[in-house]
Amino acid sequence: MSPPDGTGAFTPTDRSRVRRRPQRARYDEAAVYGILDAGVMAHVGYVIDGQPFVTPTAYWREDRKLYWHGAAASRMLATVAQGAPVCVTVSFLDGFIVGRSGIMHSLNYRSVMAFGRARLISDLGEVRAAMDAFVDRLYAGRPLKLRPTTDDELRRITLVEMEIEEASAKVRDTGPGDLPADEGWPAWCGVFPVETRIGPALPEPGMGTGGAPTPDLAPYREGARLDDTLAAAAAAYGLPVST
Amino acid sequence: MSPPDGTGAFTPTDRSRVRRRPQRARYDEAAVYGILDAGVMAHVGYVIDGQPFVTPTAYWREDRKLYWHGAAASRMLATVAQGAPVCVTVSFLDGFIVGRSGIMHSLNYRSVMAFGRARLISDLGEVRAAMDAFVDRLYAGRPLKLRPTTDDELRRITLVEMEIEEASAKVRDTGPGDLPADEGWPAWCGVFPVETRIGPALPEPGMGTGGAPTPDLAPYREGARLDDTLAAAAAAYGLPVST
Question: Which of A100, A167, B141, B159 is the most buried (most CB within 10 A)?
């Protein structure tokens, strides 16, 4: 068991231990949660008849649990809701590494691989609470301002919860390495960072709700880094912010 | 067979046909290649003993082939190089969709799922050509400026090639939908676009190659959209640009 304050760690097994460049790996909740909470789109890996599928999907986290949802017609949800083994990967491209030899070219990135088995949440009250939590976590206080979801609408949602059994985080955030053989070679070398930011808001025309976004949407101001937006949204929601 | 000019299409089967919201799906090479060529990091899905794994990795495309590489110690490469079925997914988060009811909240995105089986490229000449192509495709003309890669270095690289057997693209790029029940509800609604751009270059200190990046690196100028950067790099390399 892990303490509830996010200071615990995952225990790697053969499944989750990072083999390549283990010095870039971390297994503590702070590192894993920090990356999971910086994203909204995950890649869910599952297997049907020996064939792997990787489906991008929106997700959110609460403690050691990940949630995602969709419509009943989703093959991915039908598969994972049966308790099949799942790998959920979240990653960010952070930069282009330009070296003085071909093999020193690389990418900076952050990633988490989380393993577990999902379960279907079918209780309508639980579905409602979870769907509200997803909106609330992104746009604090917003569920109270919205047209309430009907039970019929909730019944058309397939929602799953996955307790993270194991997870590893991997980060590369440095410049190009250098080899003795590269010495004195006159090619420029360094990093081109990749930055992901919020663009200018596009109010939906014809809905009578144009103009500036309301204060609950303040984290989504133009130019904000996506990392900062999601951290600010999480803080407003009351999620402990990972570092 | 498909014409070599990128105007063909993939034939969806049960494996690749999009079930959810098929109106968002495309199977033509232009759509699939356009998304694949806008990224540098893919999520490779594979199966070991029934357990799915999703590993983020750098990749590039040439015609109907995808390439990626790593070190010999990589479990992912060891698995896929044996010809196991693989799903390679590339996706981009393009925006937050904010509706007037909880269920109308969504994300804008572009994604491709590509299916196939990879093969190991072991011929040293082929490895050299492919690794040069990867650098050249990102930074046109750069391989000629770099300290040449040695055969020993090439031998430590595991490189695989996957012919794309099937692929589907899926795109959501519109505003929030609206339901009759949402009518007149006074919550702001619209889209917060997500923009990914190149940040300020960070020359590597102490390598005597500081200062402004050389002209081969022009597409990586500060503020450029990543899409535009990769399109400009592809054009400079001579890759037919997908639309």
Answer: A167
Task: Report in angstroms the alpha-carbon separations of A238 from A139, A140, A205, A242, B52.
Answer: 11, 9, 32, 12, 33
More confident residue, A206 or A31: A31
Of the residues B165, B207, B225, B229, the best mutation for testing chain A's interface (the one with the most A CB atoms within 10 Å of its CB) is: B207
A138-151 residue pLDDT tens: 999 999 999 999 99
For B:167-226, CB contacts with A below 8 A are: 175-176, 178-179, 181-182, 184-204, 207-209, 211-214, 217, 220, 226
Q: Is this prediction's ipTM beyond 0.90?
A: yes
Q: Which class is B22-178+187-199+213-237 in CATH?
A: mainly beta
Q: C-alpha distances in angstroms, A212 versus A201, A228, A232, A237, B189?
A: 8, 20, 19, 21, 10
- Nearest Cβ partner for B204 among A52, A71, A189: A189
List, for residues A109-121, the tens digit of each pLDDT value: 999 999 999 999 9
Residue B68 pairs in a beta bridge with: B59, B160
Distance from the B7 Cα atom to the nearest Cα atom in chain A, whole angstroms: 26
Task: For residue A231, give the amino acid letter.
Answer: A
Q: Which fold has domain A22-196?
A: Pnp Oxidase; Chain A (2.30.110)
Per-domain residue ranges of chain B: 22-178+187-199+213-237
Residue B112: pLDDT band with limits 50, 70, 90: very high
What pLDDT, on the 0 to 100 scale, is given for residue A7?
Answer: 83
User: For chain B, what is the HEC assignment?
Assistant: CCCCCCCCECCCCCCCCCCCCHHHEECEHHHHHHHHCCCCEEEEEEEECCEEEEEEEEEEEECCEEEEEEECCCHHHHHHCCCCEEEEEEEEEEEEEECCEHHHCEEEEEEEEEEEEEEEECCHHHHHHHHHHHHHHHCCCHHHHCECCCHHHHHCEEEEEEECCEEEEEEECCCCCCCHHHCCCCCCCEEEEEEEEECCCEECCCCCCCCCCCHHHHHHCCCCEHHHHHHHHHHHHCCCCCC
Rounded to the nearest integer, the mean pLDDT of chain A is 92
Judged by a CB distance cut-off of 8 A, whether residue A87 touches chain B is yes
**How close, in Å, is residue A6 to chain B by CA atoms?**
24
